[in-house]
Structure formats: C-alpha cells, structure tokens
From TrEMBL:
PANTHER family to which the protein is assigned, alphabetical: TYPE-4 URACIL-DNA GLYCOSYLASE, TYPE-5 URACIL-DNA GLYCOSYLASE
InterPro entries, sorted: UDG_Type-4/5, Ura-DNA_glyco_family4, Uracil-DNA_glycosylase-like, Uracil-DNA_glycosylase-like_sf
Protein EC: 3.2.2.27
Pfam families: UDG (PF03167)
Family the UniProt entry places it in: Belongs to the uracil-DNA glycosylase (UDG) superfamily. Type 4 (UDGa) family.
Entry-linked SUPFAM superfamilies: Uracil-DNA glycosylase-like
Domain Uracil-DNA glycosylase-like span(s) in chain numbering: 34-180
Name listed for the protein in its UniProt record: Type-4 uracil-DNA glycosylase
C-alpha cells in the first residue's frame, strides 16, 4: 500500500511554474501550463510543449492530439481523470517551434519535482523531445516505442507522439497496440505495490477534484 501525496503539494509546484520567468518563453506565453490530473495518478504522460490552445486554456493536450490521447487512455479502461498529463516545457514556444535545449533545461527541475512527488508507476514518454529529456541515452522512438524501460524503480514507456499519429493510420494502430502493453505494465506494478490510498489529512474528494482538476 502506498500513500498518495497531497493536492496542496502538487499545487505548490504548479504555482511556481505559473510564476516562472527562468527562460525566454515566459515573455511570449499567455500563461504557463503546469500539468493536469489527480495526485493519486499511477500513470503520467509527458508531451513536448503547450500549443496555441493549451497556452490559451492553461491545460495540456486540449487540442486534436489531446483527443487522441484521451482515446488511448480510454482504450485501456482508464479515463483522463486517472492520468496526470504534463509537458517537457510548460510554456508555449512561439509559432509552435521546437523547444530549445536551454528552455528544456530551465524547465527540467519542475518535471523532476513532479515525478518525485507523484511517484507514478508508469510514465508515458510522448515523442522525441520527452524521450530526449527523460531517457537521453536511449535509442529513438522508432526502435523503442512500447518497450518498458525501468529507471529508479519506475517504468518508462516511450510512445509515438499522438500528434504524429493524427494523420497516419499505421502509427495510430501502433500507438493503440503499445497502449495494450502499457495496461500490462500497470497491472504488474499494481500487483507489486498494492493500491494507493489518500493521506488521512487530505482534503475531501470533492475539494480535491475542484482543486486539482478544475481550478487550475
Ligand atoms: N499539447 C500538449 O500539451 N503537448 C504536446 O506535446 C502537444 C499538444
């Protein structure tokens, strides 16, 4: 049995991300996009960077790629309320250009802190930027997708980025097949670690939902 962290601890990290001015992206952003999902999440997804819609709404993966991510999550019997979703950089690069190495570096500690706090059993690495950040020594997604990589007692699974599969039927099929493997990895992790319980001093479920899911 594991005790989940508290919503307040997660919101404290989110607050620092929103106030962050550590790289040039803060100048052009509408707002930072810290992450979205419950503190009890056993599965986390890390994408590339917020796009235009995410920058406007303050939430990750709210566009077409987000719709596909939702379908992927639902294909293994979960919903978006079961997963914590974030990005390699938390502010939109202008014109949706690739994040630059110094921007990824400036944002890096936030991702490390979030992973250390949430202790997810499985981390989905969506696309090459997240792969470069989380498993820099690994081969590319084309070789590694769907495979489990164990680091620091955590399972990482590189996957094609949902945006890449939007107009590519065979990548889409591969993504759904890889997600079935993720289901197996989650089940194995749960069998070893047991259920995750909320700490006794935590806020009520309703307050928690409002805080962590709706009150970004
Ligand atoms: N939306 C995000 O939040 N991240 C991506 O990588 C793509 C779309």
């Amino acid at each position: 049995m594991q005790v989940a962290p508290t919503t307040e601890e997660l919101l404290e990290i989110h607050g620092r991300i929103r106030a962050c001015v550590a790289c040039r992206l803060h100048v052009t952003r509408t707002q930072a996009v810290p992450g979205y999902g419950p503190v009890e999440a056993r599965i986390m997804a890390v994408g590339e960077a917020p796009g235009e819609k995410e920058d406007r709404q303050g939430r990750p993966f709210v566009g077409a790629a987000g719709t596909l991510l939702t379908e992927l999550v639902e294909s293994i019997g979960l919903t978006r309320r079961d997963i914590y979703i974030t990005n390699t950089v938390r502010c939109r690069p202008p014109g949706n250009r690739d994040p630059q190495p110094d921007e990824v570096e400036a944002c890096s500690h936030f991702l490390d802190e979030t992973i250390a706090l949430l202790r997810p059993d499985v981390i989905l690495i969506l696309g090459r930027h997240a792969l470069q950040r989380l498993l820099p020594e690994s081969a590319g997604i084309t070789r590694f997708h769907g495979q489990r990589v164990v680091r620091d007692d955590r399972v990482y699974v590189p996957l094609y980025h949902p945006a890449a599969a939007l107009y590519n039927g065979s990548l889409r099929e591969t993504l759904f097949a890889d997600m079935q493997r993720v289901r197996g990895y989650l089940d194995e992790a749960e069998a070893v670690r047991g259920p995750r319980v909320r700490p006794e001093h935590a806020v009520s479920q309703r307050e928690h939902d409002q805080l962590s899911l709706f009150a970004l």
